[in-house]
Amino acid sequence: MSNLLLKAENVKVYFKGKNKKSGVVKAVDDISFEIMKGETFGVVGESGCGKSTLGRTLIRLQDPTEGHIYMDGSDIATLNGKDLKNMRKKAQIIFQDPSACLNPRRTIRQILEEPFVIHGEKDKAFVNQRIEELIKLVGLDTYHLSRYPHEMSGGQKQRVGIARALALNPSLIICDEAVSALDVSVQAQVLNLLQELKEKLGLTYFFISHNLNVVYQVSDRVGVMYLGKMVEIASYDTLYEKRAHPYTKALLSAIPQVTKEEREERIHLQGEVPSPSNPPSGCHFHTRCTSCTQRCKDEEPKLREIEPGHFVACHLYD
Amino acid sequence: MGKTETILKVKDLCVEFNTVEGKVNAINNLTYSLHKGEKLGIVGESGSGKSVSSLGVMGLIPNPPGKIVGGEIIYKGENLIDKTEKEMEKIRGNEISMIFQEPMTSLNPIIKCGQQIAESLILHRGMKKKEAMEEAIRIMQLVGIANPKARAHEYPHQMSGGMRQRVMIAIALACHPDILIADEPTTALDVTIQAQILDLIRKMNKELDTSVIFITHDLGVVSELCDTVIVMYTGRIVEKAPAKELFKDPKHPYTKGLLSAIPRITKERAALSTIEGSVPNPTEKISGCSFSPRCPYATDRCKNEEPPVVKLDESRRVKCFQYVD
């Protein structure tokens, strides 16, 4: 996995308030990272940390305020018109709620046809053949094509969402809470399907979830976000054995686990995530951190590599 | 555990819903009992009837379309099903209270939080307004709301999700109920906040000796919080066991499947095992065991006959033919 697929450099997404008083929300604040070909890059964080905004920015569903996103030699952040449309062939997204992102008045066939129509594919026979391939690829059958979304279960609808994302043979897929709305038994089916497809088609995933267990299950590398910042990036093994940032430690220890052996000593975080429109000074996490010093309050820690491939933004590791 | 006093007994409860597509048996012959101070977990996937079972206890099943068609709910020697709406109002919020998943939709947006807590004290305890307000502030302190005096005068929208859930818990606990029913109280919250709320429920259970019925789809939460666990599938209890034993040694094929389908944080990763297919449509009539279409061990007998509830030992029950004889 030495091939670079996507490189994000100092990406910032700021949302302005209605008036001057309400201030600016820094949803994504100066984030840089790389995604390699064929890997699954997981992103975790609590609500409001900017993980979805980051995912949407990577495929330009959201314009970045500043920064560059390089993919295949072009900067996604500055693409326009036709180039932007072509880029979207290469990067697709799967959303959380499959019922909300499928048009209820269209059949599954019409839904799957749409990407081809948008991108000007006129060969009807090819499109039909492709649709049948796609529906089988995600574990459904051709008779499902004539159905409407309401006639399907949540898991089946999510499979349609996946098939639609795969229609144009993209190389990168953003999974934004793709399994969060599903029941455990169905969630496992969809996670296994995603894994299978990745191996079969050589896909790369940018996998966003608030559920750490799920991110752990699928990811090769994981980025942890807190209040618009990336606080730690590490490989799966590193994160399991040598997680460094106090927030990562607290977050992982807060997950309820089924068996005693997997349960860790809980680190109790006091308080709540501060408002992103008025983040704390210095390190954003210092208000809840158990090892906070004066320096953390004054100076913002930079994301730095503490060992090969392991990035942490914390003064403890200087 | 020497908790022997049974406080609530649900026996053969059946609930039906009339829908456009026909009658749905949301709950079939539900039987369980809750002891004093016990934390009982009810788990299941969506549509398994876990919420309806608790709404039944509270007398809150919307009628129509829902209807309790059989069984009894015995609380303090009386059958709650026979009670009139007036009598239930005295019990609700006073002796049995409930917290819901989304605090924003359960709190009144135009009444200050302190008043909402005081309301149940005025109603059930006959307190004067001022006295109730003081008690409300005391309870807010108890559930971990910092600066309760000021926050009592805030409206729900001024609070965060975690704080709102604390207000809900404060309302529910204001009258020191015997039973607290918590329906997915942490599902809408972030994990670090969830951990705080679970700690709070644990503390309240210990200090006030309130029995808790905790409904969730998250097996991890149940494993951490509850003493006893009921696993539901298609409106039936398929397994009941002490939490420790259930997670160590699940008996029913559905429980087994469910447990191995959860992604876990372990050193070695393997593909998740799955339960084939999906939960059947509730309007479908299934003969035999309702899990048999998805069960890897299903035999002809499972498809034709409904399995009995097998008593494995004093505390364990499983509804499966594998354990008959």
Automatic annotation (TrEMBL), chain A:
<dbReference type="InterPro" id="IPR027417">
    <property type="entry name" value="P-loop_NTPase"/>
</dbReference>
<dbReference type="InterPro" id="IPR013563">
    <property type="entry name" value="Oligopep_ABC_C"/>
</dbReference>
<keyword id="KW-0547">Nucleotide-binding</keyword>
<keyword id="KW-0813">Transport</keyword>
<protein>
    <submittedName>
        <fullName>Peptide/nickel transport system ATP-binding protein/oligopeptide transport system ATP-binding protein</fullName>
    </submittedName>
</protein>
<dbReference type="Pfam" id="PF00005">
    <property type="entry name" value="ABC_tran"/>
</dbReference>
<dbReference type="InterPro" id="IPR003439">
    <property type="entry name" value="ABC_transporter-like_ATP-bd"/>
</dbReference>
<dbReference type="GO" id="GO:0055085">
    <property type="term" value="P:transmembrane transport"/>
</dbReference>
<dbReference type="Pfam" id="PF08352">
    <property type="entry name" value="oligo_HPY"/>
</dbReference>
<dbReference type="GO" id="GO:0015833">
    <property type="term" value="P:peptide transport"/>
</dbReference>
<comment type="similarity">
    <text>Belongs to the ABC transporter superfamily.</text>
</comment>
<dbReference type="InterPro" id="IPR017871">
    <property type="entry name" value="ABC_transporter-like_CS"/>
</dbReference>
<dbReference type="InterPro" id="IPR050319">
    <property type="entry name" value="ABC_transp_ATP-bind"/>
</dbReference>
<dbReference type="GO" id="GO:0005524">
    <property type="term" value="F:ATP binding"/>
</dbReference>
<dbReference type="GO" id="GO:0016887">
    <property type="term" value="F:ATP hydrolysis activity"/>
</dbReference>
<dbReference type="InterPro" id="IPR003593">
    <property type="entry name" value="AAA+_ATPase"/>
</dbReference>
<keyword id="KW-0067">ATP-binding</keyword>
<feature type="domain" description="ABC transporter">
    <location>
        <begin position="6"/>
        <end position="252"/>
    </location>
</feature>
UniProtKB/TrEMBL annotation, chain B:
<dbReference type="InterPro" id="IPR003593">
    <property type="entry name" value="AAA+_ATPase"/>
</dbReference>
<dbReference type="InterPro" id="IPR013563">
    <property type="entry name" value="Oligopep_ABC_C"/>
</dbReference>
<keyword id="KW-1003">Cell membrane</keyword>
<dbReference type="Pfam" id="PF00005">
    <property type="entry name" value="ABC_tran"/>
</dbReference>
<dbReference type="Pfam" id="PF08352">
    <property type="entry name" value="oligo_HPY"/>
</dbReference>
<keyword id="KW-0813">Transport</keyword>
<dbReference type="InterPro" id="IPR017871">
    <property type="entry name" value="ABC_transporter-like_CS"/>
</dbReference>
<keyword id="KW-0067">ATP-binding</keyword>
<dbReference type="InterPro" id="IPR003439">
    <property type="entry name" value="ABC_transporter-like_ATP-bd"/>
</dbReference>
<comment type="similarity">
    <text>Belongs to the ABC transporter superfamily.</text>
</comment>
<dbReference type="InterPro" id="IPR050388">
    <property type="entry name" value="ABC_Ni/Peptide_Import"/>
</dbReference>
<feature type="domain" description="ABC transporter">
    <location>
        <begin position="8"/>
        <end position="259"/>
    </location>
</feature>
<dbReference type="GO" id="GO:0015833">
    <property type="term" value="P:peptide transport"/>
</dbReference>
<dbReference type="GO" id="GO:0016887">
    <property type="term" value="F:ATP hydrolysis activity"/>
</dbReference>
<dbReference type="InterPro" id="IPR027417">
    <property type="entry name" value="P-loop_NTPase"/>
</dbReference>
<protein>
    <submittedName>
        <fullName>Oligopeptide transport system ATP-binding protein</fullName>
    </submittedName>
</protein>
<keyword id="KW-0547">Nucleotide-binding</keyword>
<keyword id="KW-0472">Membrane</keyword>
<dbReference type="GO" id="GO:0005524">
    <property type="term" value="F:ATP binding"/>
</dbReference>
<dbReference type="GO" id="GO:0005886">
    <property type="term" value="C:plasma membrane"/>
</dbReference>
